[in-house]
Amino acid sequence: MKDGFMILVLILVMITPMFPFLLKSKCPNCKKRKLEHLDTEQRGDGRKRTYITNYHCHACGEDFEQNKSGPLVPIKKQALVAEEQASTKTESPALAKTV
Fold this sequence. Notes:
Number of helices: 3
Distance between the termini: 85 Å
Number of strands: 4
Helix content: 40-55%
Largest sheet: 4 strands, antiparallel
Structural class: alpha+beta
């Protein structure tokens, strides 16, 4: 009985360093454990405040966001590029006036 307990303890000690790999989130797109936590941002103010966590998958290159503890939602890269282009278009006339 005592030997069986010692073997169990040794197995648990050997498995412990692998826990972070086993507990890492899976990518909903490619189902691999390659998600990296990027940052957590706070949106809103007062009682309407919510926390958005951003993730990046190194296997498929997709970016995701998670509202509090909800599901991972893919971030539309095209929408982000369009927003950046729109912001640069609105900034360029202002820059032309200052020059």
